[in-house]
Each structure stands twice: as C-alpha cells, then as structure tokens.
Amino acid sequence: MILRDIEMKVMSELKDFQRATVDRCFDLFTTTQRRVLVADEVGLGKTLIAKGIISRLASNHKQNGKQFFKVLYICSNTSIANQNIRKLKIHGSVTVDGVTDTRLSMQHLKIFEQENDLKVRNGFIHLIPLTPATSFSLTRGAGDARERALIYSILKRLPEFQGHSRLLHSLFIQNATSGFQWCVDEMEGRIKKCNADTKGEYLRTIIAEVKGRLTPQQVQRVMNKDYYVIAELRMMFAQISINRLKPDLVIMDEFQRFRELIAVDTDTETGLLTNAFLHGSETNTLLLSATPYKLYQTLEEAANSGVDEHYREFLQLVEFLFDDKEKYRQFHETWNDFSISLREADAGFATIINIKKKAEHELYSGMCRTERLLVETTGKSTDDSGTKKPVEISDADIHSFIQAEMLSDTVHVPVEYVKSCPYLLSFMEQYKFKHDVKRQRPDFNNLSKKMLFMDERKLKRFTPLPSNNARLERLMEVALENGAERLLWVPPSIPYYPLGGVFKRKDNFSKILVFSAWEMVPRMIACTLSYECERRTIGQLYAKEQDKRFKGYLIEDDEKQHRRFPTPRFAAGRDKTLTTVSAMLASLYDPVEHMGKTLGEIKKHVKALIQPMLDYIKREYNVPDKGTTDMDWYWIAPTIFDSFLVEKGQKIIPNVTIPQRKMPSDILDVLANMAIASPAICALRVFDKNTEGLDKLFSDNKRLAKQFATEIVSMFDKPEAIAVVELAYGKSDDAHYKNVLKYCLDGNFAAMLDEYAHMLNDQNPVSLCGQMCDALKTSTASYPIDTYTSFTGDRKNQIRMRSHYAAGFYQTRSDAKTVQRKDHLRTAFNSPFRPFVLATTSIGQEGLDFHNYARKIMHWNLPHNPIDLEQREGRINRYKCLAIRQSLAQTYRDHDFENDVWNKLFQLALDAKAEDEPELIPYWCLPDGGSVKIERIVPMYPYSKDRAVYERLLKILSLYRITMGQARQEELLEYLFNNDCDIEELQGLFINLSPITKE
C-alpha cells in the first residue's frame, strides 16, 4: 500500500472533529508553526489525532523526496508508551521500536538497526519511543545493565582499551552480578548483526564518534575504575545518538508530566539534550495534553506554593509554542486586554466578547482544543445521586480512630488516614506514621489489635471480617451487589439470547474505578475485597468440607507443597471440549442470525444440524451402541466433522484415533453447547471475521483460537473460578468441563467476546489474539500484610493476602517485571474479565484508558482541585465507553443487525443524530445523556465538610474555562459569582479553539 493510500485510510477512520484538528495542525506545520499543541478534553482521542498528523506529514515528506520520516514519541512512562505506541502505528510497514530500550544512550544502535530494516522492507516511517525518566536522566548514576553492556561492548573495541576487557567488565558490571553477562551477550549479538547488515558502517561510524569525543582524562579515569565516569560516558553516547536521530516530528504526550523539557536550563546536560530535539529549525513538535498547564489553581494552592502556577505555566507554554519574541509580545498584549475586560463588571458584554474573540484568534494560531461542550444535550451523562446518601458510621469507625490516637502521646494520626483505611497498621507499608509507631513500641490492648490489624485467625477460616470503615462498606455494597462475586466476566451489553444462571439480571453490571489520595488504599481494597469475594465463594465450599486441612485461606509453611483449595479440575484431556477448534461447529451457529430467539430454540436448531453428522460417523466408523462410553468422542467427533469441509479441492484428513467404544448419551447436547459457547469455537468465529482475503479453513486462525481457549481454561482452573462454577452447577470432578460449558452458555460467551473484539478494534487476528490472551495473564497477586505478631516481632511472619476480584494500581518500583505486571493489569481491567475493581492513586489519573468495561467511578477522597475530578472521570468517560454501549443497547436491542452487531449499532445511532452535530455523538455522548449513566460515587461521611467541598468542585467545573490563562482564577470566579452574572451568558466567554467550529 503506497503512503498516500495509507494516509487516506487513516483519515477515514477518524471522526469529523478529529479530521478537522489533523487538517488544522497540518496547515500550521506546513506554513507558520513548528510547534503545535492539541489540548482536546480528556478522552477525545488525541493519540489518534497524532496518528493522522503522522500520516499526513509523512506523505508530504515523501512527496518532497526525503528518505525516511522519523517520529520521536516522548511520554512519561512505559505504561503509557505500551498503550499508545500501537495506536500510532499507522500501517504494518511502519517500524516501531519496542518500548524496552528507551535509554537515549542506546538509540544509536537502534537507529542503525531500524534504518537498515526500513531499507530491506522498503519502509518509510520510523517511530521511536522515549521516556524522560530513563532517556533523559543521565547526569547521575550508572544507568541500567543493558545500557552499560552496550557501552562496554563498544569501548572494548577501541585501541585505548585493547587487552583491558576484564578491567572494563569489572567497572561496568556494578551491582548487576547475575545478569550483566547476559546483557553483554545480547548486545554483542546485536552489534555483530547490525554491523554485518550495514556492511561495517555501524562500528566504523560509532567508533570514530567515540574516539573524537573521548578525552585522555576520561580514558585514565576508566583505567582507574572511577565510578563517576560512567555517567559522563552515558552522556557522550546520548549525544552520539542525538546526532543520528534528527527527527522530523517530535510528539510529546502528556508532556505536563515532564514540563522541565520545555523550561530547562540550557547550561545543564538535560538542557543540551532537549534543545537538540526541540529547538532544531527543521523539527516539528506536536504537544498532546488535556492539561497542558495547571488548568485551575485555588487560592490555597497559590498560597502554599507562593506562585500563581496556572498563569505562569500558561504564559510559559504560549511562549514555547510561538518561539518568536514579537509574536509572543503581541499575544501578551492582546491577552492582557482580555484579562482586564473580564474584571470590569461595567464593561458591556458585547465589548468583552469582541476582545475575547481577538485573544482567541491569537491563541488558535498555535493551539487546538475540542471539548464535549460542543454538543448540547438534554440530559446529564453522569449520575451522582448516590452522593446524596452519606455513608453510615459504625462503632468500629469511631473505635478505629480512638485506638489509633491512643497509640502514642507524640504521634498524631491524621483523621483522613482512619477515614480512608481500616486496619491501618496492616496496610501502611511505607508510611512514616507506621514507622514512628513501631519505633515507640506502644502497648496494644485487645481492642487496638482488633481495630488496627488484620486478624489472621479469622482469615484462616474464611470468617467474615468487619469492614471497620464506612467507605469500604459502601464499596462492598456496590462492587458485590446482586451476587457479583460469582461473575467471571462482565455480561455483554447485547446478549444474543437471554442471560442465564448467575448472569441473570446483571445486564448493566460494571467494573469500578476507585481513586484515592493515599497509596495504602489500593493495597487495602485489593486485599479486603478479594478476600470477601473468596469468602462468599471458596468459603462456602470450605464450610461444607469435613476435612479442612490445607483448605483454609492462608497457606502455612507446612502446607506449601499442597495446592490451593479447591484443587484444579482439568486433567487428562478434560479441557478438550473447551479447546477443540472445529470450523464445522463454528459454521453451524450464526449468533446474529438467531438473535431474539430463546436458548432452547437455538439449541434445537443446532442439534438438528449436528445429528446427521453424528449418524454418518456412527455408520462410517462402526461405532458400537452398547458397552462402555468413551468421553473422547466429545472432541473427536468435531475433528471428524471438519473433514466434511472441502475448499479449493483440498479435503482435511482427521488426524485422530477413532475410539472403539460408544458415544456418550449426551454427546448431541454437549456438541450443541460447544457450537454455541465453547471458548475455542467462539474465538474462531471472531478471528475468521477479522480475516480478509484468506482461505479461512486453512488459515492460522485455528491455532490462535486454541491458544486463546487455553488461556480461558487456565482462568477456569483457578480456585476462585472453580468455586464459582461448582456453586452454580454442583460438584462434578469428572464433568467439570461440562459445567464450564454451561457457564459459558449462560454468560453469552460469544456475545461477550464479539463486544470485546469490537472494542480492541484490531483487524489482525494474530495481534488481536495476543491482546485477548494478555488480558488473561494477570495472575493472582499477593501483598505482604502486617499482623500484630509480625508488627511487634519478626517481620518475616507477615501474611500474604491475594488480589484477583480487585487490584491495586499505584506507584511501585520500576523494574521490568513490575512494569509488565502493570501493563497486564491495565489490559485486564480494559477486558471483560477480572479484576472488576481497580483502585489507584494519581498515577492512574492521566494518560491511561480504563473505559472499556467501567462506568462506575468512586472518589475515595475528593481531590482539592476540580480539574483532578474531571481528569479522573475522563479515564472512563471516553470513546465508545461502557455507558454509551449499554445505553445504545437499550435503545436498539430489538433492531435487525443483519450480520454485524456493533458496527451496525453505532451506525444506527450516527444516522439518528442531527446533521449539524459533530461526531462526538454517538461515540462520546448522547443527545439525551443516555439511559445508562456514568455513576459517580463519593462516599461522604455525614456532617463532614466533604459535602460543601463537592458542591464547590461542581460549581467551579461548570465555569472554570472562563479563567483560562488568567491570574488568580479563584478570585475571578468569586467576582463573577458575586456580581450575579448569568451562567449561560458567562459560558459565551469560554475560549473556543475547536477546528471543527472554526473551519
């Protein structure tokens, strides 16, 4: 596909307001501006706009005869990079560097590798991700082991260090004693391959560069094994990389997280690096951020910091965007006139509007921003009715605070700690308060032990734990209502037939995103909510057991050789009814064709199609009618069915051993269940739907379907899932797989999977399967928890609590394993599978998507700044979010969808919108606000100041946009409020920078 065709395809996939923004940015980049900011409201697809801009600029670049188009994608952390780099890849021919090598000092090798790769594949666009936390931190420290291994492998080839390889090795190994040699071997392999591919150019170039920069003093310091020289060498290799990068476009995503890159002292090393990226005359810079500066600052925040950060950051940003003293002076003058007019109540409204329009025009020359306010709706999309009912305070809430206060005469416990977290001393892992208490060795009475520590005796026996906290009680009510602990996935928004079993009356179920100000809260929620889920499921089975040894919640030292209770059920091929892939069975049931029918009617139809094939097998293979039953027929029969399929003159020969015993009496029923709801069969239908122009029968989709089904089987073989199935259908060790099939049938597995595939929107079956499998790889995590025994004695006696129903997403160490788990956790929460509750801190507030299956958000603690409230809710109020899908499902549930449910559903909604409305409808909001709302849950204590704080947050949110770029914003709003200005009239003073309205 030629680049122009790719550009047209990318643009066709964008919505009208996104295309307008791409066109505007392209015009600015190719005429007057080198720096442009896209500041669309949170959740409106800034990354997709960036993808459109890449495609347009690359196509233009190609037409001008350039060899490559290099894009640097700079974001704040690898979680955001992993999420967004796939979105930016505009076509399969585009080379995208992995996000594991974001060290700037390593980029020289990657650049040579990828440029060679582009030449081989006749590619053109090169995407390079960098993260400032690693890429730009060069002034101190020795970097990571792979980075040092690359520097070592280059230096040992220099004449100055010939014969000193062992000395170099001992310098660069640092504390990576176990893994450094592995890193060296990896780098050596890459260097040799790259050098061979480039016919020796790589090493000739790099060695010449190093020799030209390396000073005699540095050579001597290396020979003296001076640790501090490593940082200088990292800087040197980073500068070599910069000279090779020469990007055509720099994308800075959520750049407010590393603002120092645009306001850095040019005398520092970081300044030298960023100036090379951002101040080159030929480099375009695209800034992406819904909060490009502190959007709103309270007077309290200004007093605490001593600086009006909003005003300072706004002007700093505009100065950076314009990069022209005269242009900035003119803007500053115009903006100052606008600011003065806003504070003059006697100025005519029409006069203020005219001044506003002039300031708006100036700002629009470097900045675009589209907001949902463009769309007028008749109803609210957010339901906060739950906030009107305060939480109920129990005696335990009060006792918890009293006991915490009694710990010490000198250590005061903040009341917010106790309101936020029960069993304080069990979960405050790194808090100074906990360490101070431990150092003072207070006397604990029985009540304080009960209030401040988890009771391991209760945990062992799955005994109910008192929540001791009103907020936690409210969360448990919402998260586990109506038997939700027995769900293993979110029920589909549009079931293909009525939901059954444990899925009945759970049509509008939702995951929950919880935001807290305290890091201990995510750990506490993950542990206590998951324990309560286990208590209601595994605990019920435990209670029925006569022999309770090795079956409790906690695993003792002498039990570690035993598996968790209940033990795995799938063995000796018993999973094959779930993992056998049959193209014939997949073809017998078209879910959309049978929508509106009952499950009984569907099964009757499918059975009628299967019966003749079973009869044929019995005749063809002389299957006996009497004697012993062979369960292998459940998966062998479908395998033989596929031999009936012939395409392109090829007949499939079944590679199976035919059983010599009779078929099970229920084989027809089981095969019908497989055709309708087996994970392997449902996955095959999904992958075939995404396979274009291929012979589906002989494609790789069968292998992919089996791969995905195997992950599903692993999920069902975990104790918490085994308990759910067993409680729903009874205990059956031999036929557990049949009960799992029934569970899939009741839960509309096919409809769930089709909706999930639609949200992933990946037309490549291989990568689609990869994403679906990744969502199931979030293994049960456990957290070390202090009990009274471990707190007052040996820390090794800490217990471990599991998390699976709920999970914590917060700042932890940044090693590769932790980063990978965070990525899997984000992927899992965006899937229909567990976890159903994700508790996070401000780390989850910007740049990450959590909207696929969550329309409920709980503000454990109200933020001080109203923008934080908007940012939090922007994590779930996004493109095709769950509230939108569930609302449209209620509106169009009975419509004829032909052969494509979800694309047809959104097309119907799109056709119904007013012609002059932007395509924010129906993908981001609905004209009536939607019948299913985003639910905002704020667990407020009665008579607390939270009510007044909440009401003020909402009031400011409705009008803060007037104060954009103004000094002392809160004073300005108070002035407007006190002068009884009309709200609708004031909204006319909002700055409008949306290209779709201006073009």
Count of extended strands: 17
Global shape: globular
Spatial arrangement of strands, main beta sheet: 3-4-2-5-6-1-7
CATH class of the largest domain: Alpha Beta
What number of structural domains do the residues give?
5
Name the helicity range: 40-55%
Summed over residues and divided by their number, the pLDDT gives a mean of 87
Identify the CATH homologous superfamily of the largest domain. P-loop containing nucleotide triphosphate hydrolases
Rg to the nearest angstrom?
A: 31 Å
Hey, roughly how much beta strand do the residues contain?
5-15%
CATH architecture of the largest domain: 3-Layer(aba) Sandwich
The termini sit apart by 31 Å
Structural class: alpha/beta
| CATH structural fold name of the largest domain | Rossmann fold
Contiguous helical run count: 47
Which residue ranges are poorly predicted, with pLDDT under 50 across at least 5 consecutive positions? 93-99
How would you characterize the largest beta sheet? 7 strands, parallel
